[in-house]
């Protein structure tokens, strides 16, 4: 079961309120492939709490003068690390027949 943090349930308006970022900034970060909201059948963007956390990190880095391509590179590296960690944890759980 997916964690509540990763469920895409929030509209861009709610994300705007939570982060303080403008709608334009949020869309720009999507355009730059820093976040990947899901789309409903009607094309409405849906974000997760994890996306909100990522947007706040992006905003902090941008204030420090970090370019978007550098942020994307950092996000990709951390995502690969998280995936590797989950795979190892899964292998250990399977080997020792443990549950999370």
Helix segment tally: 4
Major β-sheet strand ordering: 1-2
CATH topology: Multidrug-efflux Transporter Regulator, Chain: A, Domain 2
* Euclidean distance between termini CA atoms: 11 Å
**Class from helix and strand fractions:** mainly alpha
How many strands in all? Answer: 2
Poorly predicted regions are none
Give Rg in angstroms. 16 Å
Count of spatially separate domains: 1
CATH class: Mainly Alpha
Shape: globular
* Relative strand content: under 5%
| Second rung of CATH, namely the architecture | Orthogonal Bundle
Average pLDDT works out at 85
Helical content class: 55-70%
What characterizes the major β-sheet?
Answer: 2 strands, antiparallel
Instruction: Name the helix and strand elements from N-terminus to C-terminus, one letter apiece.
Output: HHEEHH
Organism: Halobacillus karajensis
GO molecular function: DNA binding; DNA-binding transcription factor activity
Keywords: DNA-binding, Repressor, Transcription, Transcription regulation
Domain HTH merR-type: 9-77
Describe the structure.
- There is one protein chain.
- With 100 residues, this protein is mostly helical.
- The chain has one domain (4-96): Multidrug-efflux Transporter Regulator, Chain: A, Domain 2 (Orthogonal Bundle), CATH 1.10.1660.
- The protein is built from four helices and two strands; from the N terminus they run H-H-E-E-H-H.
- A two-stranded antiparallel sheet has the order 1-2.
